[in-house]
């Protein structure tokens, strides 16, 4: 069940990033410029970031679909659950939470130290929950997997 839930979360987030990263950003951001979409077309920093987020959405979508495979043959596809459900969310959540929560410490004095990037923190929390859920499930079924039981 943990693998299925993580797959569904990856699919939902992936589709949201593919359809419109701007909508996701506007949901969390207080100040999104009216001409932001113009920057996507020709800005040297914003355009690559926008399309990289869309490409990341495709990666999450395909990873989510891949996470469904262990349901059909849990022993054969157990490695997928470790890679997509443990390693990827663990490393990604560390990066996201570290930079989302502690970015205020690195900023200048005009911004308080309690400043954080809410979308980055939320995505980091989602990934840490997936990590804990899948790792716990894999550890609980470890003995059965070694014995060849599904």
Strand content: under 5%
For the CA atoms, what is the radius of gyration?
18 Å
**Helix proportion:** over 70%
Give the count of helical stretches.
Answer: 8
Largest sheet: none
Q: Average pLDDT, to the nearest integer?
A: 81
pLDDT < 50 stretches: none
Question: Which structural traits does this protein have?
Answer:
150 residues; mainly alpha; 0% strand
Can you offer a commentary on this structure?
This protein has helices spanning 2-19, 21-28, 36-42, 46-66, 78-101, 103-106, 118-140, 142-147. It is mainly alpha-helical. Helix 1 runs antiparallel to helix 4 and helix 5 packs antiparallel against helix 7 (118-140). The model has no long low-confidence stretch (mean pLDDT 81).
Summarize the helices and strands and which ones pair or pack.
Elements: H1 2-19, H2 21-28, H3 36-42, H4 46-66, H5 78-101, H6 103-106, H7 118-140, H8 142-147
Gist?
The protein has 150 residues and is mainly α. The chain has helices at residues 2-19, 21-28, 36-42, 46-66, 78-101, 103-106, 118-140, 142-147.
């Amino acid at each position: 069940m943990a693998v299925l839930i993580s797959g569904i979360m990856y699919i939902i987030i992936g589709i949201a990033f593919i359809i419109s990263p701007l909508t996701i950003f506007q949901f969390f951001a207080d100040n999104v410029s009216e001409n932001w979409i113009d920057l996507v077309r020709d800005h040297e920093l914003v355009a690559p970031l926008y399309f990289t987020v869309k490409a990341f959405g495709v990666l999450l979508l395909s990873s989510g679909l891949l996470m469904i495979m262990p349901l059909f043959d849990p022993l054969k596809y157990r490695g997928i659950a470790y890679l997509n459900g443990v390693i990827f969310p663990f490393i990604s959540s560390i990066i996201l939470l570290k930079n989302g929560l502690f970015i205020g410490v690195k900023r200048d004095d005009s911004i308080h130290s309690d400043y954080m990037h809410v979308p980055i923190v939320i995505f980091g929390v989602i990934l840490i929950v997936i990590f804990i859920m899948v790792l716990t499930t894999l550890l609980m079924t470890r003995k059965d997997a070694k014995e060849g039981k599904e």
